[in-house]
Design goal:
Layout lengths: L1 E4 L2 E7 H7 L8 E3 L7 H6 L5 H13 L5 H11 L5 E4 L4 E5 L9 H16 L5 E7 L3 H10 L5 E8 L5 H8 L5 E7 L2 H13 L7 E5 L5 H4 L4 H10 L3 E6 L4 H11 L4 E8 L4 H8 L23 H7 L4 H7 E5 L2 H15 L5 H16 L5 E5 L7 H8 L7 H8 L5 E4 L2 H12 L3
Parallel strand pairs: 5-13, 6-7, 6-9, 7-8, 8-14, 10-11, 10-13, 11-12
Antiparallel strand pairs: 1-2, 1-3, 4-5
Helix pairs in contact: 3-4, 3-10, 4-5, 5-6, 6-7, 7-18, 8-19, 11-13, 15-16, 15-17
The chain binds pyridoxal-5'-phosphate.
Length: 433
């Protein structure tokens, strides 16, 4: 499979290069040159396939010769060694729970698959690889836990001091080994600017390969389609799928799966008040905005990084995208109310992100009475105990995976904001290799 740069279609690379670069130097996203169609035999077998088995088939189509099939098998078996759970919430609604991985959020799927690709690539030469990531919370934890102990790869995570929750901070700072947490005296935007500038300067570094692990890496996007095949395989064709969206990677992966032939009836893009995409779907005008803080904070994105990819899946055809995707947005009051009401009505406990998806599905089903659907729950409610416990009056059980992080010892490198500081840090550490 070849990948092209969305900003300059003449630039073509293979899977490996697209993954190792993350983004092209002109900040263009890599996009597969076509969405492969899966054949009837695959769909016939789907109901009995496990998630790793699906990953091997679909992942191999996207990776082509850059990852041999037996390596793909190993990557998928190691990455997806935790359950994906589908539950019936009421007669018309199923939930797809993607939060049973090590950091209790769906980002584990993409991060662990990407780490597996890096493990393989780094076994093929003796270059040192450095993965840089700026995080406002969840991404850093998933990357840290996924890359822990991967040989030949160092991970440097920049986070804004005092602006992530203590659980999130522990997920970044207690692992050690090849994971370094850099605590920046500044904002998330400062962290991002520092990563960008280090990547821009990376052409001058011949001794190491620098890359970014943010959500636009194609190796994080592709595995996010695997669980949609699994969900439809388990529950049957023809359902509506509602995805809680921020950077729009998760729903883009669903759109790609649908385009490959998967029987998803319709997609719902559900957001908090950061509503640029629902507005676009309604008006045709895309107006990126400054992000607004909400209780579904992993979706506080004003200019979604994967929006161009989502449009591309529909050949940039507005009629095609609006025919297949509906958008709905909800404010914090509505999200809070829904968490309480759904708990009362069904006994199902939602986190704020899952609640947005559940609301989006309800909104669509209200106008399409014959349909049923699946909404996606992306974070464990225990990560948002302060919010959900008062709404439901129930204490939330903390999963063991999260509990382990509460005990570790924090270690971080303190750094002032500013691109030159991260550059100097990299110079210091890697100059003599
Ligand atoms: C990142 C994240 C989202 C948004 O996913 P996108 O792919 O960026 O749209 C939703 N929920 C949770 C819990 C997340 O961490």
């Amino acid at each position: 499979m070849k990948y092209y740069n969305l900003k300059d279609r003449r630039v073509i690379t293979g899977f490996r290069e697209a993954v190792e670069r993350g983004i092209s130097p002109d900040m263009g996203l890599f996009m597969p040159e076509r969405i492969p169609r899966l054949d009837d035999a695959f769909f016939r077998q789907l109901p009995s396939m496990t998630l790793p088995e699906i990953g091997i088939e679909v992942g191999s189509l996207y990776a082509g010769d850059d990852i041999p099939r037996k390596v793909m098998r190993q990557i998928c078996e190691e990455a997806f060694d935790f359950p994906v759970v589908i539950r019936q919430v009421d007669e018309r609604k199923l939930v797809l729970e993607l939060f049973h991985g090590p950091t209790a959020a769906f980002k584990d799927f993409g991060a662990r698959f990407m780490a597996g690709c890096f493990r393989y690539f780094s076994s093929r030469d003796d270059k040192r690889r450095v993965v840089l990531v700026a995080t406002s919370g969840d991404t850093g934890g998933a990357i840290a836990s996924s890359f822990l102990g991967v040989e030949g790869v160092d991970v440097i995570i920049l986070y804004p001091s005092g602006k992530v929750s203590s659980l999130q901070e522990n997920q970044l700072t207690t692992l050690g080994r090849n994971i370094t947490a850099v605590e920046v005296d500044g904002s998330f935007d400062d962290c991002q600017a520092m990563v960008k500038s280090a990547l821009a300067g990376s052409a001058n570094r011949t001794n190491l390969k620098l890359t970014s692990a943010n959500s636009i890496n194609i190796a994080r996007l592709i595995p996010q389609s695997f669980y949609y095949y699994y969900a439809i395989g388990c529950s049957g064709n023809g359902r509506v799928l509602s995805v809680p969206s921020g950077n729009f990677g998760n729903i883009t992966a669903a759109a790609m799966a649908r385009r490959s032939g998967l029987g998803i009836d319709h997609l719902v893009a559900a957001t908090n008040v950061n509503r640029v995409v629902p507005d676009y779907l309604k008006t045709g005008i895309y107006a990126p905005a400054v992000s607004v803080a909400t209780i579904a904070n992993a979706m506080d994105v004003g200019n979604p990084g994967n929006f161009d990819r989502l449009r591309r899946v529909f050949d940039d055809d507005y009629g095609a995208i609006t025919g297949s995707v509906s958008g709905y947005w909800f404010d914090d009051d509505r999200i809070r109310e829904h968490i309480g009401q759904e708990y009362q009505r069904t006994g199902y406990l939602l986190d704020p992100h899952g609640a947005v998806a559940s609301l989006g599905l309800d909104a669509y089903l209200e106008h399409h009475p014959g349909s049923g659907g699946i909404f996606v729950a992306t974070a464990h409610p225990a990560k948002f105990r302060d919010i959900v416990e008062p709404l439901t009056g129930q204490t939330v059980e903390i999963p063991d995976s999260l509990r382990n992080f509460l005990a570790g010892k924090k270690q971080s490198v303190k750094m002032k904001a500013g691109p030159q500081n991260i550059e100097e840090y990299l110079d210091d550490i890697y100059q003599n290799e």
